[in-house]
């Protein structure tokens, strides 16, 4: 799923990672899937992305091993949604560090607000991406809640392999 150039065979691990993750849609799709919004309609509505672009990105993310297709029931018929793989769940520290960086180094839009990332295992807000800044435990999606004041929402994250209910 190359962004501009094929870096899949490059010796530099950053370039190889960007070959998979360099498209900005990839990380926001993973964010939403980790928030339990792995159904196509939920992703489409929340991201504001065209159906064609979303379909291409999802197909590429499955091929890259970031997402897996999972069946679910909708009004009596079986449909397919998307769940994070372990590879995608391991991006949680990257997503959380991006959020922390964004709060420190970008201008807060009107009606915005600080987004606490709460480690549910200890009940405290963490200020780091990989380990809890309070208890020191490794952070995994199924133990995290992101509080989004601009949406008046508490979004619990889900484990790898879980579709979620949204």
From TrEMBL:
Pfam families: HxlR. InterPro entries: HTH_HxlR (IPR002577), WH-like_DNA-bd_sf (IPR036388), WH_DNA-bd_sf (IPR036390). Residues 12-110 form the HTH hxlR-type domain. PROSITE patterns: HTH_HXLR. Keywords: DNA-binding, Transcription, Transcription regulation. Transmembrane segments: none annotated. It comes from the Bacteria. The keyword DNA-binding applies. This is Helix-turn-helix domain-containing protein.
